[in-house]
């Protein structure tokens, strides 16, 4: 069997059989040229191929480092976003009907955030806001507030 390579065609023939077969290799040569092409032209030997690919890998390495640096920044931002939200209704007074008072808690993944308490009374509402840092408040928390905060932190 004989194989001869012509521009963009491969000839396959047999000494005994005088039939000639040509295989069109346009897509093969396009892929071949894509693999062996650099910014300076077509690669002619193995040394050029190794140099070209080592440059590409070095470039990819620096790109990957930049991506990981951006991911680290995003992780810091994500840690500071609100992730835990809860609402607990309660009735602080026995002489009023229904759980019209509530505690609203918003915390990030580090348990920093805010606790808002609304106490409904006959003559109006009282609203209190308390800053929460690492799961605790500098200001004293009521029994209801501490219970609501513990529930949100544990979930």
Topology:
Blueprint (H helix, E strand, L loop, with lengths): L1 E5 L2 E5 L6 E5 L1 H10 L1 E2 L2 E2 L3 H34 L2 E9 L10 E8 L4 E9 L2 E10 L2 E2 L5 H12 L1
Antiparallel strand pairs: 1-2, 2-3, 4-5, 6-7, 7-8, 8-9, 9-10
Notes on the protein architecture:
It is a single chain. The chain has 155 residues and is α+β, with helices and mostly antiparallel strands. The protein has a five-stranded antiparallel sheet, with helices on one face. It has a three-stranded antiparallel sheet with strand order 1-2-3, with no helix packed on it. A hairpin with a 2-residue loop joins strand 8 and strand 9. The protein starts with a strand and ends with a helix. The chain has two domains: 76 residues, no CATH class; 73 residues, no CATH class. It is 36% helix and 37% strand. The longest helix has 34 residues.
Short description:
The chain is of the alpha+beta class and 155 residues long.
**Number of strand elements:** 10
Tell me the strand percentage band.
Answer: 35-45%
Shape: rod-shaped
> Helix count, per DSSP?
3
Work out the radius of gyration. 36 Å
Q: Tell me the major beta sheet.
A: 5 strands, antiparallel
Q: Which stretches are low in confidence, meaning pLDDT under 50 for 5 or more residues running?
A: none
Structural category: alpha+beta
Distance, first to last CA:
74 Å
Query: Helix and strand string, N-terminal first?
Result: EEEHEEHEEEEEH
The helical percent reads 25-40%
Residue-averaged pLDDT: 79
Strand order of the largest sheet: 6-7-8-9-10
Count of the domains: 2
């Amino acid at each position: 069997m004989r194989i001869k390579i012509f521009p963009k065609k491969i000839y396959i023939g047999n000494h005994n059989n005088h039939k000639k077969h040509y295989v069109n290799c346009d897509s093969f040569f396009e892929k071949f040229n894509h693999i062996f092409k650099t910014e300076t032209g077509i690669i002619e030997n193995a040394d050029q191929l190794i140099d070209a690919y080592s440059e590409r890998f070095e470039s990819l390495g620096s790109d990957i480092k930049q991506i990981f640096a951006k991911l680290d920044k995003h992780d810091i931002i994500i840690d500071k976003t609100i992730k835990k939200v809860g609402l607990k209704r309660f009735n602080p007074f026995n002489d009023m009907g229904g759980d019209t008072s509530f505690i609203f808690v918003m915390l990030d993944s580090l348990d920093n955030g805010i606790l808002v308490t609304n106490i409904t009374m006959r003559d109006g509402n009282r609203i209190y806001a308390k800053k929460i840092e690492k799961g605790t408040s500098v200001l004293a928390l009521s029994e209801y507030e501490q219970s609501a905060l513990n529930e949100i932190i544990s979930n």
